[in-house]
Amino acid sequence: MNYSTVLSKKPFPPQKQDQAINLLVYGCEIQKITSGNKFEKLFIYMSHEVSYQLIYIINQYTNYIDLRKIRFITDDIRDSKKFTDDKSVLLQIFVSEECWYLKFANQTLKELWWQGLQYFYTKVKEDLKEKLQIQLMAWEMFIKFDEDRDGSLNKEEQQGFLNWIKLVYPNKSFIENKCIQSSFQNKLEFMQFEEIVRLLYKQSILIKLNKLYLNSQNLLIEADFEKFIRTAQRQQDTDYFFGFPMTADKFNDFLFSQQNSIFEMGHSDDMTKPLSHYYINSSHNTYLTKDQLAGDSSVGQYVIALLNGCRCFELDCWDSISDRNPVVYHGYTLTSKILFEDAILALDKFGFMFSSYPIILSLELHCSIDQQEVLGQIMRAQFKDELYIYEQNLSVLPSLDKLKRKFLIKSSGILEESYSLHKNNQEIHKTMQSQKIVKTQKTLELIQVDQDPEPGLVREIAQKQRISNKTLKNLNYENKQKQFIRHDAICDFKMIGDQIDLVIPVSMNVKHHPQFLSCISLFNSPFEINKKRSIWNISSLSEDKVDKIFKEKKVKEVQQHLNNYLVRIYPSGMRVDSSNFDPIPSFILGAQIIALNFQTKDEPMLINRARFSQNLGIGYVLKPKYLIEGLDQVTNFESPDYPKKLVTLEIISCQLFLLHTKNVINPQVIVKLKGNKVDENGQELQTNVIYNNGLNPEFDQNYSKTTFEVKDVDQAIFIFKVFNKSDDNKQTIIGQYALPFKNMREGFRAIPLKDENLMVMEYCYIFAQVTIQ
């Protein structure tokens, strides 16, 4: 589990720390705000004897939150549509993929509780380093069955544990007969319970490796550990910070740890290439929590997307009926609304907290001219210098390094109008500076006409606004020809000192208000690959159009086009359930913005997360060399420049920690290769089914080993899934993982499983041996 500074807040007064700790340990009553702004009372306290968990009780039902799964906390809550009362007593907590709102009795209680949580969160990172995984697993089981919370298991609680063991491990009678029942007494203490769990999870692979590398005292010395890393793991880097000699338990822990994961982080990409050379982690209808028809909208979804590496967000902008505050929602549906301003404030506050690279806001515009002006005012006021204004004379898009900490606004708009707008602004700015006009906080209104003005009208307006004849002439307001801006159009610019904030010429019958238009840097335009266009034009294609490109065999020319220009791929309108399309064809096409429904945790989202786990997870991944350079000889990847790789994969065993299961477990592991069609071609590995073992299944080598041939190494992604096979041959997924080939490590490796919400399942792994040739 990776820890981040999710509890970032200025330090609390140290004199209140004891009070805060006690509040967490002894517990307090809090209200949890659910959908529809309903309140649910819960009693919540901290369990910290072995592991650290928040125990909460709702309506006599007990559940817990692993403290390590709290990803972010803030009291800067921006959802005005959801909360109209006092926000000072609210905390917003992001737990796994959920956004929780907690309401406290008063602000003092909230601050104390937050301080206590911060204390334990800091402590957990240090304390758990010293704990073995088997201890933590045993403790989670123990508190699960210790229903009266007295620190031991009575006969009834022991029977609950026995029933669970029989469910997930029914054919291991010797465990029950020789270990469990003989150990059970009227009270079963944790130390005895831990020994039972150790026996349950023992695997032959661990025994084998221990025999190979541990000495006669059952210890692993540093020299033998380095030998294991270099020979078995095929690594040159042996800089691990362990104390030596290492016990068998510590060695086993290392094998099932993040340090020994099959995933290798690798090096960061070159960030000096043009924006069009990168895949961009992108979301569709980011504000939705569920489906496209009646799902709830939440500002919190933007923060969840940020936490998951998203750098391109969608906002569907509509007029507010009651006031001039534009809203975001899925138009003509029953989805709830959030304020556009709230979404912008949240993105501004948290947008560069997790990555400093640019954010693209894809605005689907349905607002009237009047409320477009508000959109522009909000973005300019909030983003200030972080709002990117495109440069007119560039022939290629700027690099990511140049765009650091910048917001790029994508929307409908006419690029030529925008050019004219910015040109006029520059001329006015230059003229005003040359006149050395200094009018602090003075707003000037310039009215232009669409017809030959009445004699003296323009001069009268200019005199009224104290604009000199020279300025007037320079701005061409005295031209007797037909003016291009219509009557009654008003634009404001503010003189602050000798700085001009903004000048906007406005037309009454245009589709876009200049205040809004002046914020746009990426302009929607039709997808025309053979037509000359600006680098600032961007096209949008539905997933169906991508399929059509492949069917019509136009892939190569589209790939070449997308080397210089941006395209956004979005889900079909038929996906009202917020399901996702397979992003791999779009990756192969070279599409930069592949917008997926982040709220839906399906296989396409698993693949998307795998792709963007590359490049340190910053939300941008450099496209393959053959896409950037347009190399012709790699169509079938038979070129000597692209030698194929052979990946031999053996699935040895699983470590499963399925404490909440209610089914008999018959696990099977299936591995598929996804990517370019030259690689997929039915390449798959299926292990045998292990019946009645939901703890530590070990697979038959005759069925669990195969060699995959990988030609397009840049696009190849391995997908691992553990299924539960029922007697009628139906299968349900237990855990899953996806891994780009380029990040795969050789040796005996742990493959950390993710649940249906794509969150890491603590203590759940596939154990495999990988060889790459």
From TrEMBL:
InterPro entries: C2_dom, C2_domain_sf, EF-hand-dom_pair, EF_hand_dom, PI-PLC_fam, PLC-like_Pdiesterase_TIM-brl, PLipase_C_PInositol-sp_X_dom, PLipase_C_Pinositol-sp_Y. Residues 133-168 form the EF-hand domain. Signal peptide: none annotated. Its EC number is 3.1.4.11. It comes from Paramecium tetraurelia. GO terms for biological process: lipid catabolic process; phosphatidylinositol-mediated signaling; release of sequestered calcium ion into cytosol. Residues 523-627 form the PI-PLC Y-box domain. It comes from the Eukaryota. The keyword Disulfide bond does not apply. CDD domains: C2_PLC_like (cd00275), PI-PLCc_eukaryota (cd08558). Keywords: Hydrolase, Lipid degradation, Lipid metabolism, Transducer. This is Phosphoinositide phospholipase C.
